[in-house]
Amino acid sequence: MNRKLRMGMVGGGTDAFIGAIHRLAAFMDNQIEMVCGCFSVNPEISRSSGKLYYLPENRVYETYQEMFEKEAQLPEGERMDFVSIVTPNFVHFDPAMMALENGFHVVIDKPITFTLDEALKLKEKLDETGLTLALTHTYSGYPAVKHAKQMIANGELGKVRKVFVEYPQGWLSAKVEDQGNAQASWRTDPKKSGKAGCMGDIGTHAHHLAEYVTGLRVTELCAELNILVPNRMLDDDGAALLRFENGARGVLMATQIAAGEENGIKIRVYGEKGGLEWYQQEPNSLIVKWLDKPTQILRVGTSMNSAIAAHNTRTPGGHPEGYLEAFANIYRNFAMTVMAKMDGKEPTPEMLDFPGIEDGIRGMQFIDTVVKAGYDDSIKWVTL
Questions:
Q1: Is the pTM of this model over 0.85?
Q2: Of 99, 210, 302, 309, whose CB has the highest number of CB atoms within 10 Å?
Q3: What sign results for the dihedral spanned by CA atoms 6, 8, 14, 15?
Q4: How many CA atoms lie within 13 A of 83 on its CB side?
Q5: 45: Cβ–Cβ under 8 A, 6 or more apart, which residues?
């Protein structure tokens, strides 16, 4: 291929939050261009957003159904190659399924769907079509996180024994969903968010990070979910004890009522020989603690020389590789995979290193399990 991948977008109008992040990430490596979109359920907002995004009027659609139908009818050299779905949870499955049915690859926000059954149906369709799907579990995109994963896979820490992962936020400490905050409004509404609030929104990130870095699956969990702001409909706080497939034990905490916290996702993993620690608010540093030698601080762009970290590092040492770059790594690796397939080539392991349908299914299994365990005091351990 000697062209950019052509992207369409569902959601992400000028009145939205995450759509702008997706566009910045998608465009960062100059591999993707946006050619069409349905940016809102409100046709006027969709049209005005498309104008601000410099799209031709005939490529700005009033519904995503219209977009998929009309894009599929365009010549191969004009129509979009994939769609980015940046809508609330309850509008994930239908556009994703329709995109796959019309031959378009998919990038989608997490959690992947509204229910586990929907995620399993998407997998069936992906297996049937051979198309590619990326899921934006952003924190797996950081170079330091990828280096940590490689160290564990190489056995440098020995057998993993203990995992601590936490994601504290404070933005829902007050009932801001009643004060015109659109992001809070849909995230705390079970009809739009699903059966989980905090655990569906950020607990899934913590769960994915733990499984991604360790390479291990959680097999059982014991949980407590809480609604600490009065009259809120979904959990805003929770914690879980984890059992991993190799016998390791873990602790997961996610909360959105830790007043003063921002996006403090953090992971610590301990093996037989040592441990490691990564904190998003200091993203270029990976702290490695050894049983029998001094602690090391590995820095992105300098002491991190693994192929996977280098592939996902853009700047010289000392320049922070932050949230947008991590987000962009998912889009870039997805784009490189799709381009390789279009050229009849086998994608490399570095290209294929992005969350996909299996991660989406694991996330929905986590939500189902943590909700089952989290509200029933008579249950101790529940199998994922």
A1: yes
A2: 99
A3: negative
A4: 31
A5: 13, 14, 15, 39
